[in-house]
Design goal:
- The complex is a heterotrimer of chains A (348), B (390) and C (589).
- Chain A is α/β, with parallel strands linked by helices.
- Chain A is 41% helix and 18% strand.
- Chain A contains 13 helices and 11 strands.
- Chain A is elongated, with a radius of gyration of 23 Å.
- Classes of the chains: A alpha/beta (348), B alpha+beta (390), C mainly alpha (589).
- Chains in contact: A-C, B-C.
Chain lengths: 348, 390, 589
């Protein structure tokens, strides 16, 4: 009796979960479509619609991709599966899958500074170079959005901002530009994202600061009894009131922390630089090559740009951004770690 | 052996012929667990397999049940070959041998109540639930445990569990019931009780049984015949009296009951007696009590039981004279240990006689009670039933 | 002889049930062996030739010396701490009048109720040097007595913090093993020592300790094995402390590098396997030297030590330790999940269930991870239990032979290697040619089953071993076929073990981190994978909520099923100690 009941219960549980599992990915599937030319827009849209969905691996901020996907979905009725993943892992995973002949991602979005990956996936023939996609917006003046020798293009810029605790800093105490960080009133109150553990972006940002405002400012910031922490901890310490200022940060990420109820905000400086995210589009071996192309194209259109611009704290390189986002300086392509370390007085 | 022309009543419940089973020992070498056994159990007969642990008795029983697989030979249950390596190979799985078995550990299924345990063999053999219920009630009544139908095994005493196991063994009325030391786990008093009940039950139901035990008292009480097993072979097969009075080998003599024995060398075989030379002088043993084909030069043992000898103070006519070493009072008799030369004899004495240790005593035993035995199973005296050496 | 064998085989094939059982057992053995074989082929065979040079790839690992030093220093010290704490608690509970009651009985379940990832995150939230809630509280207290600190006083993000958390999480293992050892040690031995004039302390060191050294040896082996295999604590606390441990490096070599540095990863993880093997050999050596007590079966009495004035303090320390080590991290998780973000001073005004709504509804990745994990855990546990039960049936029902022994050993072999090695094997064996299962739920299911099957096997075995041989034989004699015997006699008796095994597998698979982090893909996210991704760039509120959900689901499932298992077991009188049933998995044999 007991056995029969147990078996029946297990069976029922399994049945109940069946519909759930039906939407899971239990085995690879491939569409065998040809890549259409963007020149023939109607054909591309039809082919993309037939594919029905597009998969995006993104190391970018989730809010940006969600906004873009929502607009794309509304216009074409094509589902976008956004898969959030760290940039290092994204590169490894995409290439591992592709080299096994098992491309999963139709589109990847990662930091433009990961040039080696963008180059590698184009060289191996897994991705189509951006300049060869035939996207109308990337020709002529739009070519400035191309990056890494034209193999990819920028689709979103996140201006670097200063995060602050809204309970501790009010009105005039909120920094107005980067030079304010040298002010002694912030001494001991700044948490700095540790460039030694959090990646080269943070050294590169310091390089921009150094290039723009000179050694003295960096030296002055270094003299503020900086506390170093990783990104998440820094943001939490800011929210907890442990520190008043968290740099460098982005308005879009600070907004998501503020949404949890933490007393934090970010101020975008009038003159600043930006983290740039780029797009890679998989070739014909991808599951949905046409939808991929259509999605990439959508980002360059005014509608796509508007979707990105609708996210507070970021802007599209394809125009239409609000003036408050300014016009960030291009991000430096290299940095001098020893020089910067010396200025900051940061030991290894 | 063709059994088709026999009337059903003549068909033996079990025939085992030339059965062999060898185990490979982990350290190399083989153990002959069953070494060419022949055995026949008639309908309604109980044959007890007796022997110390390791003599192969349980292996033989399990081979009959199909729980062990012999290497070669033949097993026939109620006229049907269930195992055979001669000619077309036959190997009927346990569940199709139509046997019953009572296990040493009771082997009651703990998750079934008593009636389910007992009904199990019936239900597996296709008896309908309603019919089974009546048969179960009858089996429980016979084993004296009516009213325990709904109990679970762990709620029962050892004796009650034993009875449930017995009920389960008899419920299907199989022609052959196997008992694997079924009474070794209950205390002495319950054991005696169960023994006689089991005999009563067997007489009433008339099933044939193969009964394994290492307890000679039990063997003598239970068995119509006893098969004494020695290293995988049947050393002797006979009634309790045969085995006790006329042991076929030195091994049987020592395993069943106490024995006095001393080494002897055959000097001469003449007429109705065999003359042997021993440390205690020349001794004459009746020919019928000596191994077949005994010849001068053979080494054997002179053997007799303690109660066959008497202690006298009268030197006349006494066979041997010795010194009393120890006297043990046992109520019904006293056991005297008497040293004669190098030999120490065990002898029964009148418990009321006052014998002092150290006293010189005279021993006497009638010549016709002396036996000559050897270790050789194939050479036994003609007066043992002799099936063993066949 | 040969004819007999052939005949046996024919006999075997005649029973469809036994054929199914044998087939399942063989498939299970193949599934267990295949990934390991792939690992060794990958490592030792280059272009069809045996070549050991791949082992040299270990030198490609950046900062190898530091990683090995960190790993061994942390694992050795934490094992010693866990051993001492576990032995002390076990001795208190088993041999003194300062018993721990229900808390002592619940102790071995803790690692199954509170996944290590929850402990790791909880401790970090509590004792981060600056933002830790516990630190803020302590600073506040110290402030009242005139000591003002800017950070600390505790720093969990340090070598000591890492060592401490690893030790705390593993105390239940040493407690469990040593308790069992003490229970089995005849108290008369200790009483004899007392009669001979030795005091409590002398008796402990001269008699009790040598008497349980077998258990102590097993405990050390278990602690070192789990210490080296654990990934969650090194990745959460080790990363914050900037202390890189072997398991973290191996996972990074497999997932953050292209092409995956399989050779280096496998060589590095073999270091852990070798270390466990060395401990095992040492343990064997030490134990085989001299005799250890043969243990009587019946009528054991344990000599209870009266602690008199020490009793209450000892009890208090023990119970405080258990509560602090398991409940405190959960409290901090609850606070962070409810207030939505991590802060030294919890924003009590902000309390809501928002984070739970986030991970269950709003955040589609988290929601689908939970769904995937639940589906995988239910299917995986069911599959695992069925396979384990049939494999055990294959090994234990028929006549024991060298072959069944071999099958048994192969099925359990993955337990000897760390989860990391086995998972790499699964990736090598199933993700690429010829099956191309990479980044599918199928490979996760296969991985989970292969990785956790040995644990299920041991759990179910302990309950199957109670079904005596004669119970089966009695059924066969009564006319039942082998399938009938299994269904009517064996299965009902093994049900408590099956239920416990299912609970164990379910919980393990639901909270799995190590296998998931390498096997899951972004499109096949599972809870463990998601927790790590939130940890590296998300909200701690959501992280706490997700971790708590795993804890709650695990707790509910384990308690419900153990209750069911005990109820069935009690009725049939076959209940093993469920503790042993659930936790009896000994990894290295």
């Amino acid at each position: 009796m007991t056995i029969a009941k147990s078996v029946a219960a297990l069976g029922l549980a399994a049945l109940a979960l069946m519909p759930l599992s039906a939407c899971g990915n239990w085995g690879g599937s491939k569409a065998d479509a040809t890549v259409e030319s963007v020149g023939n827009m109607d054909a591309l849209v039809n082919a993309a619609k037939k594919e029905g969905s597009v998969t995006l691996y993104s190391s970018s901020v989730e809010a940006i991709d969600s906004a873009e996907a929502k607009a794309f979905q509304a216009k074409y009725g094509i589902t976008v599966n956004i898969i959030k993943i760290g940039s290092g892992e994204l590169a490894a995973r995409y290439q591992t899958e592709a080299s096994a002949g098992n491309v999963q991602a139709d589109v990847i979005a990662s930091t433009c500074s990961d040039a080696p990956t963008f180059k590698a996936i184009v060289d191996k023939g897994w991705a189509t170079p951006a300049k060869d996609l035939g996207l109308p917006a990337l020709s002529g003046a739009g070519a400035s959005a191309l990056a890494v020798d034209g193999v990819t293009f920028k689709y979103v810029l996140m201006p670097v901002a200063i995060g602050y605790n809204t309970a501790m800093l009010k009105g005039a105490d909120v920094p107005k530009d980067w030079t304010a960080l040298g002010d002694p009133k912030y001494r001991g109150k700044i948490v700095f994202v540790d460039p030694d553990t959090s990646g080269p972006f943070y050294w590169t940002f310091l390089q921009w600061l150094d290039n723009t405002y000179g050694d003295d400012l960096v030296r002055a910031v270094g003299a503020q009894q900086l506390s170093y922490a990783d990104v998440t901890t820094a943001r939490n310490q800011l929210g907890a009131g442990q520190y008043a200022v968290d740099i460098p940060t982005f308005k879009v990420s600070m907004n998501s922390t503020a949404a949890t109820g933490a007393p934090v905000a970010a101020a975008v400086m009038p003159k600043t630089t930006a983290n740039e995210s780029c797009i890679g589009v998989s070739g014909p071996k991808a599951p949905h090559p046409n939808a991929a192309k259509l999605y990439a194209n959508f980002m360059t259109t005014p509608e796509g740009a508007a979707a990105i611009n609708s996210v507070d704290g970021v802007l599209s390189p394809f125009g239409g951004a609000s003036a408050s986002m300014g016009n960030p300086d291009p991000f430096p392509t290299s940095y001098d770690e020893n020089h910067l370390r010396g200025l900051l007085g940061k030991r290894k | 052996m063709d059994t088709s022309d026999r009337s059903p009543a003549d068909v033996p419940a079990l025939v085992v012929a030339d059965l062999k089973k060898h185990f490979r020992r982990s350290g190399g070498g083989t153990v002959k667990a069953i070494d060419g056994v022949h055995l026949e159990i008639a309908q309604g007969e109980i044959v007890v397999l007796l022997g110390p642990s390791g003599c192969g008795k349980t292996t033989l029983l399990r081979a009959v049940a199909g729980l062990e697989q012999p290497d070669e030979g033949m097993i026939r249950v109620a006229g049907r070959d269930v195992f055979s390596t001669t000619g077309r190979r036959v190997q009927v799985p346990t569940e199709h041998r139509d046997l019953s078995m009572m296990f040493q550990s009771y082997a009651l299924w703990p998750h079934m109540d008593v009636k389910k345990n007992v009904a199990y063999p019936l239900r597996r053999r296709g008896v309908r639930r309603s019919a089974a219920r009546a048969q179960v009630a009858e089996a429980l009544r016979r084993t004296g445990i009516s009213g325990l139908e709904d109990e679970y095994p762990h709620q029962l005493s050892g004796g009650q569990q034993q009875r449930v196991a017995l009920a389960r063994a008899i419920v299907a009325e199989s022609p052959l019931v196997l008992f694997d030391e079924p009474l070794s786990n209950v205390d002495a008093k319950v054991r005696v009780e169960l023994r006689s009940e089991l005999i009563g039950l067997q007489r009433k139901l008339g099933f044939a049984a193969m009964y394994v035990t290492h307890d000679q008292g039990e063997a003598m009480e239970m068995g119509h015949r006893i098969a004494v097993l020695d290293q995988g072979r049947v050393a002797q097969l006979g009634s309790a009296a045969d085995v006790y009075e006329r042991p076929a080998t030195r091994y049987v003599a020592n395993f069943v009951g106490a024995a006095n024995e001393f080494e002897a060398k055959v000097v001469d075989v003449a007429g109705e007696s065999v003359l042997v030379e021993t440390a205690l002088g020349k001794v004459r043993v009746p020919r019928s009590n000596s191994p077949a084909g005994a010849a001068a030069g053979d080494v054997a043992w002179v053997m007799f039981r303690p109660e066959w000898m008497s202690v006298t103070e009268d030197a006349d006519g006494a066979r041997w004279t010795g010194r009393l070493e120890r006297l043990v009072y046992l109520g019904s008799h006293a056991e005297a240990f008497v040293r004669v030369g190098e030999e120490l004899f065990q002898v029964w004495a009148d418990p009321r006689r006052s014998l002092a240790p150290g006293a010189t005593v005279h021993l006497d035993v009638a010549q016709e009670r002396l036996r000559l035995v050897t270790d050789d199973i194939d050479r036994v005296a003609p007066d043992t039933t002799g099936e063993a050496g066949r | 002889m040969i004819r007999g064998l052939v005949w046996n085989l024919r006999d075997y094939l005649r029973s469809p049930f036994r054929v199914v059982v044998a087939a399942v057992a063989l498939v299970a053995a193949a599934a267990a062996a295949y990934p390991l074989v792939r690992v060794f082929l990958n490592l030792f065979v280059v272009d069809g030739r045996v070549d050991f040079s791949s082992l040299g790839q270990i030198t490609d690992v950046p900062g190898l010396g530091g990683i090995l030093w960190n790993t061994f220093s942390v694992v050795i010290v934490s094992s010693i701490l866990a051993l001492l704490a576990g032995a002390f608690l076990a001795w208190l509970n088993e041999r003194t009048d300062a018993t721990l009651g229900a808390i002592g009985r619940a102790m071995p379940y803790l690692p199954f109720l509170v996944p290590p990832i929850a402990s790791a995150v909880g401790w970090l939230l509590l004792f981060h040097p600056t933002v830790g809630t516990g630190n803020a509280f302590l600073r506040n207290v110290l402030g009242h007595v005139g000591i003002h600190l800017g950070h600390g006083p505790v720093n969990i993000a340090s070598w000591w913090g890492l060592t401490f958390v690893l030790a705390v999480v593993h105390v239940p293992y040493s407690y469990m093993v040593i308790s069992a050892g003490l229970r089995n040690l005849d108290g008369a031995l200790e009483e004899q020592s007392r009669v001979c004039g030795a005091g409590t302390v002398k008796t402990f060191f001269l008699v009790t300790l040598p008497g349980i050294r077998n258990s102590v040896g097993s405990a050390v082996l278990l602690l070192v094995f789990f210490g080296l295999a654990d990934y969650s604590i090194p990745v959460i606390i080790g990363t914050s402390a900037q202390i890189k441990m072997l398991s973290v490096e191996v996972v990074q070599l497999m997932t953050q590098k292209f092409p995956p540095q399989t050779g280096a990863a496998v060589s590095l993880s073999l270091v852990a396997v070798v270390a466990v093997a060395v401990v095992w050999v040492l343990q064997r050596r030490l134990l085989s030297r001299g005799h250890f007590y043969a243990i009587g079966g019946k009528g054991q009495s344990s000599a209870i030590v009266r602690l008199r004035g020490w009793r209450r303090p000892c009890q208090a320390i023990a119970i405080l330790f258990i509560i602090v080590s398991s409940v405190l991290p959960l409290v901090s998780l609850v606070i962070v999940a409810l207030t939505g973000f991590w802060s030294a001073t919890p924003a009590w005004s902000n309390i809501s269930l928002r984070t739970f709504v986030n991970v269950l509804v709003n955040d589609s990745t988290s929601a689908s991870s939970i769904q995937n994990s639940l589906v995988l855990a239910v299917f995986g546990a069911t599959l695992g239990v069925v396979v384990a039960a049939l494999a055990i049936e294959f090994v234990s029902s028929g006549r024991r032979s060298r072959f069944t022994g071999f099958v048994d050993a192969v099925i359990k072999a993955p337990a000897t290697f760390s989860i990391i090695v086995v998972t790499i094997g699964v990736i090598l064996g199933f993700s690429g040619s010829p099956l191309y299962l990479g980044a599918t739920l199928t490979i996760l299911l296969i991985g989970y089953v292969v990785v956790y099957l040995p644990q299920a096997t041991v759990t179910i075995e302990s309950s199957a071993s109670q079904v005596g041989r004669e119970l089966r034989e009695a059924s066969a004699v009564a006319g039942s076929s082998s399938s009938g015997t299994y269904l009517r006699v064996v299965a009902p008796l093994v049900v408590p073990g099956l239920v416990a095994g299912w609970a164990l597998l379910f919980v393990r698979m639901l909270g799995d981190l190590t296998a998931s982090v390498m096997l899951a893909g972004p499109s096949t996210s599972v809870i463990g994978f998601r927790i790590l991704s939130i940890y590296s760039n998300g909200s701690f509120g959501d992280l706490a909520a997700l971790t708590l959900l795993v804890t709650v689901i695990a707790t509910v499932v384990v308690f419900t099923l153990l209750l069911v298992s005990n109820r069935i077991g009690r009725r049939t009188r076959t209940a093993t100690s469920s503790v042993v049933a659930v936790t009896g998995a000994e990894p290295a044999r």
